[in-house]
C-alpha cells in the first residue's frame, strides 16, 4: 500500500468516526427528551385573608352545621314509606277510616241470659247471631206467613256445608227447623231460600204467622228483633229475641191481632 492510499484510509476512518460520534450525540439528545420528567406547572397561589367572625355569625354557622348533620326525617320512616310515599299516604287514610269506624261501632250483641239458658238446657251449641232487623208489615201479615232474612244482611255463616249446598243447588229446598219464640215457646217451622234475579233471601215460614199472632210475643210491624241460630245434635234451630226499647204493640189482644194480620206490602 502506497503512502497516498494510507493517507486516504486515515481520512476516511476519521470521517466515519466523526459522523458516528455526531450521530450518537443526536440520538442521546432525543432520548433524554423522553426520559426527563416534566416540571410541574406553576399555578398562582391565592392569598386568603381571614377575618375574625362575630359571635352572631358563629352561632348561625353552628346552627347550619347542626341542620346539615341532622338525620333526614325521611330516613327515620320505615323502608316501605321511604320508597313508596303514596303507600304511606294510603296507610294514613286507612288508619283514619278504621279509627272513625271503630268509634261508630255499636257494642257487640249478646243473647239474653234467659234465652241462652233455655238453649243450653236443650243441648244447644254453636250459637250465632243471624240478623237484627225491624219487622215489616209483610213480616207480620197472616197472608204471607213468613219472616225474611236477606242473605246479604246475614251477620254470620250459620249453615253447614251440606245445608249450604242444598240451598244453592236445589230448587225450593226446605229444612225442618225448631224455632224458640220470644215467649220461650218452641214450635216447628220450615227454613228455605228464595232466589231472586239479583239476590237471595232466607225465609222462615209455615208456623211463623201463629207466633206472630200471639200477644205475648209482641211481634208487630216496627218492632226490632234478633234471629239467632244454634244446633241441637247437629240439627239447625233458631231463636227469636225481641229487642227492648222498640215500638210497643197495643194493649188489647184484638189490636195486636189486627196489626199482625195487615196484608200491606213493604
List keywords for this structure.
disordered C terminus, 7-stranded mixed sheet, single chain, alpha+beta, B3 domain-containing protein, At1g16640 B3 domain, 266 residues, 7 strands
Describe the structure.
Residues 28-73 are annotated as: Disordered. Keywords: DNA-binding, Nucleus, Transcription, Transcription regulation. It is found in: Nucleus. One of its GO terms (molecular function) is DNA binding. This is B3 domain-containing protein. By secondary structure, this protein is α+β, with helices and mostly antiparallel strands. It has a domain at 127-257: At1g16640 B3 domain, CATH 2.40.330.10. The chain contains eight helices and seven strands; from the N terminus they run αααααββαβββαββα. It has helices spanning 3-35, 55-69, 79-83, 85-104, 113-121, 161-169, 208-213, 253-260, and strands spanning 124-134, 146-150, 174-180, 186-195, 200-205, 224-232, 235-242. It has a seven-stranded mixed sheet. The longest helix is centred in the first third of the chain and has 33 residues, at 3-35. Residues 100-107 and 251-266 have low confidence and may be disordered.
Structural class: alpha+beta
What's the overall geometry?
A: rod-shaped
Distance N to C terminus: 153 Å
Uncertain residue segments: 100-107, 251-266
The CATH topology label of the domain at 127-257 is At1g16640 B3 domain
| Mean of all residue-level pLDDT scores | 77
Quaternary state of the chains: single chain
Q: Tell me about the biggest sheet?
A: 7 strands, mixed
Number of strands: 7
Strand-residue proportion? 15-25%
Helical element count? Answer: 8
Instruction: Please tell me how large the radius of gyration is.
Output: 51 Å
User: Please, what is the CATH homologous superfamily of the domain at 127-257?
Assistant: DNA-binding pseudobarrel domain
Amino acid at each position: 500500500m502506497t503512502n497516498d492510499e494510507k493517507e486516504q484510509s486515515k481520512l476516511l476512518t476519521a470521517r466515519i468516526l466523526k459522523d458516528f460520534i455526531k450521530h450518537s450525540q443526536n440520538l442521546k439528545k432525543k432520548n433524554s427528551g423522553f426520559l426527563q420528567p416534566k416540571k410541574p406547572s406553576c399555578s398562582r397561589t391565592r392569598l386568603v385573608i381571614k377575618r375574625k367572625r362575630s359571635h352572631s355569625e358563629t352561632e348561625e354557622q353552628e346552627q347550619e352545621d347542626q341542620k346539615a348533620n341532622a338525620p333526614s326525617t325521611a330516613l327515620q320512616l320505615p323502608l316501605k314509606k321511604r320508597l313508596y310515599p303514596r303507600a304511606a299516604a294510603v296507610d294514613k287514610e286507612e288508619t283514619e277510616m278504621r279509627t272513625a269506624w271503630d268509634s261508630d261501632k255499636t257494642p257487640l250483641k249478646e243473647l239474653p241470659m234467659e234465652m241462652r239458658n233455655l238453649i243450653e238446657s236443650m243441648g244447644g251449641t254453636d250459637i250465632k247471631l243471624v240478623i237484627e232487623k225491624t219487622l215489616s208489615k209483610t213480616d207480620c201479615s197472616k197472608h204471607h206467613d213468613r219472616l225474611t232474612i236477606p242473605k246479604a244482611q246475614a251477620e254470620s255463616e250459620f249453615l253447614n256445608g251440606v245445608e249450604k249446598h242444598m240451598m244453592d243447588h236445589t230448587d225450593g229446598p226446605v229444612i225442618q227447623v225448631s224455632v224458640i219464640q220470644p215467649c220461650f215457646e218452641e214450635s216447628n217451622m220450615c227454613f228455605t231460600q228464595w232466589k231472586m234475579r239479583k239476590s237471595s233471601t232466607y225465609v222462615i215460614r209455615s208456623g211463623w204467622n201463629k207466633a206472630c199472632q200471639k200477644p205475648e210475643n209482641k211481634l208487630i210491624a216496627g218492632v226490632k228483633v234478633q234471629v239467632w241460630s244454634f244446633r241441637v245434635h247437629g240439627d239447625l234451630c233458631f231463636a227469636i229475641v225481641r229487642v227492648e226499647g222498640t215500638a210497643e204493640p197495643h194493649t188489647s189482644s184484638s189490636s195486636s191481632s189486627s196489626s199482625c194480620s195487615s196484608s200491606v206490602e213493604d
